[in-house]
Amino acid sequence: MLRFLRAYAQNFLNSRLMDERRSLPPALISEFAEAGLLGLQVPRELGGQNLSHTDMNQVFTQLGAIDANLAIFCAVHNTLGIAPILFSATDEVKSCVLPRLATGQALTTSAISEPGIGSHVRGMTTRATRHPDGSYTIKGVKKWISLGGDARYVNVFAGLRDEHGRSLGITGFLVDSRTPGFGIGPEMLTLGLRAVPQYDLTFDNLRVPPSALLGAEGDGLTTAKAAFMGGRAVLASMTMGAAMRSLELAQRFTKGREVATGSLAENGRIREVLAEAGAAIQAVETLTSRIATWRDEGQDVPEAWYFCAKILGCELGWKAIDMALQVLGARGFLDTNTVGQHFRDYRLFRIFEGSTEAITVYLGTTLVRHPDQFAKLVHQTRPAATVLRLIDQVAEIGADRPDDAAAQHMHAAVVGELVCWTLLAMVTSQAEAESPMHGYTAAWTEHQLQQRLRNAQLGFRRSLPTVTEFDDHVAAFAGVIGDVDQRRWPAEEWRADPLLR
Ligand SMILES: Cc1cc2nc3c(=O)[nH]c(=O)nc-3n(C[C@H](O)[C@H](O)[C@H](O)COP(=O)(O)OP(=O)(O)OC[C@H]3O[C@@H](n4cnc5c(N)ncnc54)[C@H](O)[C@@H]3O)c2cc1C
Fold first, then answer.
1. What's the pLDDT tens digit per position in 57-88?
2. 2-102: which CATH topology?
3. C-alpha 352 – ligand 1 centre gap (Å)
4. Is the CB of 358 within 6 Å of ligand 1?
């Protein structure tokens, strides 16, 4: 697969054209299916590749380095789409659907987000109702669904009610998009990832049979979590591929470039920013490969590890891409430069499948409420003694929970971030003897943790402006910049989003 992807990139791919046309090349689906890329973890007897998590990481790092559109296309199909079916559909449904998906005869995705909810999944308003004959009807609207207009099978998550209107909890359903009542809304014109379109989906009393159920009634969030946690680690692997590619180009450039101090490659400041990006990439790689190894060994991996991979993988990876763009100077700003395209495409990764802020606050809140879970995480690896001392200080900050709600959110964000850096420092400290670069990476990661700890200990004593005070402050901008809302763009969706009016 890796060989296929490298040859495909060199000989057939034109990322620029794909971006411009906002679509994947027509032959891509069948070629990717033939190479096994559409059934990465589907069992062999159902037409898939049955890849280990370690191998899957490698495939996604490769895809991520080539083009985020290809990577997201494969990730949506394999992790958002196939994984919930693999975990939770009946054997009969699996044997009917999975061979079709693995061989590219059909695509699949998941629909969770709605116009009114994104990060707050429990607030979803799409409703499913169970009928006496065991079938269900689904009614509601989903938004931003990648491949939503192309997928034959969509995992739809909805709040289920029984025949008497009693709530049974969020439940997953495998919906065939050919079912009457399945509607496809307009394509979203996104800033990046232009070749993998997103659509609104509407379900107008769409009826599905009992076999459409994914897992048990009310267990939808368990199904979604089981599938999407792995997806979060995959996002980190893709971002690392793009960050590696960007750093490779930046390093090449510095070697040939003369600046006022001489060779750019010899400039201390530039060596420092490049080395830091290299350390960030190596740290996240160490983390994702550790998670994959644990999963391949059948170990239970607490969700904090996946959150850490998603948060730091996507944040540090994008920062490394931004750094490469900066080092490339004007060349970095060219739209025809791979690094510029990565910069645009990978910006999304900090937002979707749990935005950094939402999952950092969630992680921090969980660990503040259940400090025993933090202790368990620490026992999962045997970190260096210096890191162990820092871990005690992180636990102290976690225990110091404020009373006020807004202060609690800020405290949870600090704790969540500290926990992520703690986990990264734990895995990198274990690998520090492997090479001089691993030694640098371990020291850099520990330093990042120390800096954040110091910030947290120092605190910021000034209270926030109230929402009204800040609202008044921003409202006064109109006096400076006036009303500049553009009313319409011909031939495009022109109404302003109600939340932006
Ligand atoms: C290109 C693209 C593809 C997508 N594909 C899919 C798909 O295939 N299937 C699908 O179901 N969805 C998909 N989505 C939706 C995506 O998962 C959501 O956009 C994402 O979860 C964020 O939700 P939102 O946009 O409603 O942001 P909101 O939930 O409105 O959050 C806005 C911002 O508020 C902050 N925030 C939110 N919650 C908290 C919190 N608890 N604490 C602190 N700060 C917080 C964060 O900064 C966040 O970015 C896609 C989106 C895009 C742009």
1. 999 999 999 999 999 999 999 999 999 999 99
2. Butyryl-Coa Dehydrogenase, subunit A; domain 1 (1.10.540)
3. 5
4. yes
